[in-house]
Design brief:
The protein is of the alpha+beta class. Among the domains are: 66 residues, no CATH class; 108 residues, Arc Repressor Mutant, subunit A. 28% of the residues lie in helices and 14% in strands.
Length: 260
């Protein structure tokens, strides 16, 4: 056991993993026959055996801290059922609050390109990086096509950009900005929407202003080199991604999820 005076700074975050729930029914194995006891008063009837839910595949030295429930429902199915995705999320949150007051929740909605196909729940699992789903996806994936020698390859799944076959030195935030525009191809995005989406979870004193967004875009363009015009400025409105004939976008799995 750790010394309470010395906090564990890494909290085991680098060794966290997922387990699955498995329903275990009470054992039905026959019990050994014993000699009949002397007659006694009939005991009060006992409550029926309760099904026990256990967590399997738990490594030694770990403990359960919560769970993830993957729900596959597209917007059309929700509307057909007379509801919508945010309402379903709020209903689940209310149920948890009633069942276990104080339970913390965090919900995300998985996005995929229109027409991408596949089962909804598989899309959700891939978007949220479920290890088992990722492993299955890699095993089932066909051999990739050779990288094109020229042009731009925006690889959403691998979080990288290739320029004429070479990896562009984009920072994480620069790739996030490019991905944000790519996934909204054809739309002009104003600076306020970029700030609220890409910096929505930071403190107010760390939130950039619109001039800072211009700086981020300028740096992104400089690293795109001869292909900088795929990020176009719409004067007085914002920015837009323009796809050219020499631009390839690889979605592979689903983009990063948006948070409810």
């Amino acid at each position: 056991m750790d010394d309470p005076a010395t906090p564990n700074t890494d909290q085991g975050f680098d060794t966290m993993s997922l387990a699955t729930l498995s329903e275990l029914r009470p054992s039905t194995a026959p019990r050994p026959v014993a000699a009949a006891p002397a007659p006694t008063a009939a005991p009060a009837p006992s409550a029926p055996a309760r099904t026990v839910n256990r967590i399997r595949a738990v490594p030694e030295g770990t403990e359960a801290r919560g769970f993830a429930l993957y729900v596959g429902i597209d917007e059309a199915k929700a509307v057909a059922a007379g509801t919508d995705l945010p309402s379903i999320v709020e209903a689940v949150k209310r149920l948890l609050a009633e069942t276990v007051p104080g339970a913390e929740t965090y919900a995300s909605v998985a996005l995929a390109p229109i027409g991408a196909g596949g089962r909804d729940v598989d899309v959700v699992r891939l978007a949220l990086q479920d290890p088992a789903a990722l492993a299955k996806h890699r095993q089932a994936a066909v051999a990739e096509k050779p990288e094109p020698k020229g042009g731009v390859v925006i690889d959403i799944s691998r979080k990288r950009v290739l320029l004429d076959g070479d990896i562009a030195p984009l920072t994480y935030k620069e790739f996030e900005l490019l991905q944000f525009l790519v996934l909204r191809e054809g739309r002009t995005i104003d600076r306020g929407e970029i700030i609220s989406t890409l910096w929505g979870d930071v403190d107010d004193d760390e939130t950039p202003n619109e001039r800072t967004i211009d700086v981020h875009v300028r740096r992104l363009r400089s690293k795109l080199g001869a292909y900088e015009d795929i990020v176009r400025t719409v004067r007085g409105a914002g920015y837009r991604f323009d796809r050219h004939a020499d631009v390839t976008i690889r979605y592979a799995s689903t983009p990063s999820p948006d948070v409810f």
